[in-house]
Amino acid sequence: MEIINRIVDGYHDVMDNQSDPRTKDWFLMSSPFPTLAICLTYVFTVKVLGPKLMENRKPFELKNVLIWYNLFQVIFSCWLFHESIASGWFTTYSFRCQPVDYSRNPHAMRIANGCWWYYISKFTEFFDTIFFVMRKKFDHVSKLHVIHHGIMPMSVWFGVKFTPGGHSTFFGMLNTFVHIVMYSYYLLAALGPKVQKYLWWKKYLTALQMVQFVLVFFHAFQLLFIDCDYPRAFVWWIGMHAVLFYYLFSDFYKQAYIKKAKSMKLKEKVEVESSKVEPKERKLSILNGFSNGSALGDVRQRMAGAVASQ
To answer: What pLDDT score was predicted for residue 159?
Structure first.
């Protein structure tokens, strides 16, 4: 019982005394458990409940919904990217070491507010997967997709709770830029076949995601080697997320593009070789027919029949 009390007291000490007091009363910020519950509900819905509900139903036609949804995400991502730039990236923020400003001045509060909206954006991205399920594109609900979307709200929650600003917003700045490109691609794809034929650059989106995680990895872990007034725990938190996501996205890239391309080349090679072999086989079969006397026998039988009929 004493151990449980210590755990509970430690939890309240961290949440109440070591977190950012500016954000503790904001929506969903008082405790991590509502966010955790939403994330778990999302995973259960897209992996179990959704496919079960769609099992005997026709896929939904969501063309217009997808167009408006992706347009919203492009606009939302543009605004979030603008807010991250307004916070100081490429102007006053240092790429080497940027502590969090915990004051209540308007600029610091604007940064914290932007971090909270970035956290909310991770929930809106759940609809990417929900729409896959509704259209019965279950092969799109991959391990990468579910893990990435399923843990991001929980991950960002800790950032808003303890470090809403400073060094960690580098990841948000990069991520919102990538999402501008990504949702622009999805928007164009939703417009139909007339536009889709020009979308040859899909695989480069995955490459862009991988570059993003490499940059986040080096940007975060540089603080392990220099003095900076930024929590080391969050250095590891952000850096290890970059490692995890880089592994998942690189594995997806290999499976979806490299191995698929090799498989297609092998298939084409087999088809070419088959087209060369088949005519030879047909020629040999004809020659074999005459050489074994079968064709000649047929001719003789016809002649004998004609003589008999006379």
So the answer is: 95
Please report the pLDDT score of residue 285 as a whole number. Answer: 52
State how far the Cα of 224 lies from the Cα of 226, in Å rounded to an integer: 6
Confidence of residue 310 (pLDDT cuts 50, 70, 90): very low
219 is catalytic: no
Domain boundaries, the chain: 2-261, 267-309
Whole-structure pTM value? 0.82
The number of residues making up the chain comes to 310
pLDDT at 296: 42
- The active-site residue out of 107, 148, 149, 167 is 148
